[in-house]
Structures are given as structure tokens and as C-alpha cells.
Amino acid sequence: MTPLIRVNSLRRALDPEGTRPAESVIRSGKGWYRLVVEAVRLDTADLDERGNEALHRRCRSTVRGPRVVPG
Predict the structure, then answer these.
(1) What gap in Å lies between CA 52 and CA 23, rounded to an integer?
(2) Neighbour-count burial for 13-38, b at 16+ CB within 10 Å, e otherwise
(3) Cα–Cα distances in Å, from 45 out to 20, 42, 50?
(4) Is the pLDDT of residue 4 over 80?
(5) Residue ranges per domain, the chain?
(6) How far is 18 from 64, CA to CA, in rounded Å?
(7) Please, are residues 59 and 6 in contact by the beta-carbon 8 Å criterion?
(8) Alpha-helix runs per DSSP H in the chain
(9) What's the pLDDT band for 67 if we cut at 50, 70, 90?
């Protein structure tokens, strides 16, 4: 799993659906990521739960593997 996949999973877990990358609570540039703390209101238990949900979603999609279409 690459750092980009992890960051995208976190963005999906933390941002409301439909949030554009420029409006995300996780901003990025060439070689860096930054959490916009002014835009975030979470307690640590909620953050842990959301991180685990993102990780489980990623694990489930990895376990399924690629889809093979008969030809």
C-alpha cells in the first residue's frame, strides 16, 4: 500500500462526500501532506474509528483482488 492510497483513504474517511482535493482537510503538494487543523473537529476516539474503517475498506478491496472477465 503506497502513501498516496493511505492518504486517499483518510481523505474519504475525514472529508464529507464530494469534497474536492483543494477543500480537503488533508492538503498536499509536491512531496508533502498537511492536515488543516483549523478545519477539523474530531476527538481521538472518532479519528481512530474512522482510520480503522478506512483501513478495513482498503483491506477488503485488496482481498477481493482483480476482477477477471471471461473472454
Answers:
(1) 23
(2) bbbeeeeeeeebbbeeeeeeeeeeee
(3) 26, 8, 9
(4) no
(5) 3-64
(6) 25
(7) no
(8) 3-14, 44-64
(9) low
pTM for the complete prediction? 0.49
CA distance 21 to 23: 5
Please give the Cα distance from 71 to 69 (Å, whole number): 6
Render pLDDT for 8-64 as a digit per residue (tens, 0 to 9). Answer: 888 888 888 899 888 999 998 888 889 888 877 767 888 888 888 888 888 877 665
Widest pairwise Cα distance in the chain: 52
pLDDT at 65 over 80: no
